[in-house]
Amino acid sequence: MKFSDYRINEDIKRNLEQLGFKKPTDIQYKAIPSILKGEDVLAIAQTGTGKTAAFAIPIIHLIYEQKKSSRSDAIKCIIMVPTHELAIQITEVFEKIAYKTRVKTLCIYGGVDQAPQIEALYKGVDIVIATPGRVFDLVHQGALALNKINYLILDEADHMLDLGFIKDIQDMIRFLPAKRQTLFFSATINETIKKLAYSLVHNPIRIQISPKDPVSKNVQHAVAFIEMDAKRYFLERVISEHKESKILVFVRTKVRAERVAKAMERVGIQTLTMHSDKSQEERFSTLKEFKDGKVKVLIATDINARGIDIPNVDYVVNYDLPEKSENYVHRVGRTGRGVQKGQAISFCSSEEKEILKEIETFLHNPIHVIDMEQAEQEEILFLAKEKEIPEGDWRSLMAKAEEEEQLYKEKKKKKRK
Ligand code: AMP
Questions:
Q1: Whose CA is nearest to atom 12 of ligand 1?
Q2: Is the pLDDT of residue 311 over 90?
């Protein structure tokens, strides 16, 4: 089935064509007809499956049709998401799919001046995409009216619970009409999420995408056994061998992100870093530079492993393995989005082998091991070390990094005991 066969507005079809969307992904195929029929949906799906368009397409269509007979500029749909970045990303998708349809979308989130958001609300919008905290504030100030909402969407509900938004969500629900259509999306499911979901949806259709293998089939992922001290040389090699590729590198801490960036800088590789020490503006501009391909390597901590859609990431490198197994799925899910193919490689040191085991248990599958001959490892190390510039600054930085690694190893050892 193609989008051209769907009973959706021709303007929307044209926009989908512009986006290069020809056939629906699994989740779109399953969700769109039900949403168009007015059914509630409870979907377990990771990002990368095309879930944003799975709700954007039918919701825009339904609102567009309603607008033909009604002039109401009340808010008809609210989409709750856990982070600013995700709110912006979803808004971009809505704006593209709703291009030239008169369906207006507004993105609102905290941490920035609320006056422009209030002004935009007064002008009238159909769809609001928001983080819970700011919605809570605006509703209580009377700037945001939710009493005409027909559609409530919760995206990444599990992440919202992780971030402690449950009270804000429950508070907001009280302002919504009981008669509405609710779409609930979560990457994972447990008892708390089930409870929240069933308090919101009514007779939902249930959709679960790839429950057995949480890593998308578009992603080829593998692990290479590389010791901590050698990781930077291998990263240098991955980057040098894929100069034209966009590479997203995940590290364990923000300090390590900066250190790895410095190590790359010393060998002439420009990188960007993204972690919780960066301001909101820095994070936006970093993301933009990476999206535009101005800088091809982004080194990040897990803060943006979830939800963020950076188009065309060719490689994900797990420079450090994630401590939480589910973050492995979120990280490698940054590549192989939609219908594209992607690759992910994890660097696993001796002390990370336990973490690797936990990840494999979580995936119900072993991860393919790239067999690197000892001789090849030694050659890479030898060549890389030859290139290093013996400079005081550089040496002390590395000494510090090694010291930190030693401490980490000792901490791990103690934890295991
Ligand atoms: P999402 O899971 O919503 O974050 O979407 C992941 C990626 O898939 C995004 O880059 C979308 O642009 C892309 N995508 C979504 N639906 C389709 C489709 N039907 N055909 C091709 N690409 C798609």
A1: 338
A2: no
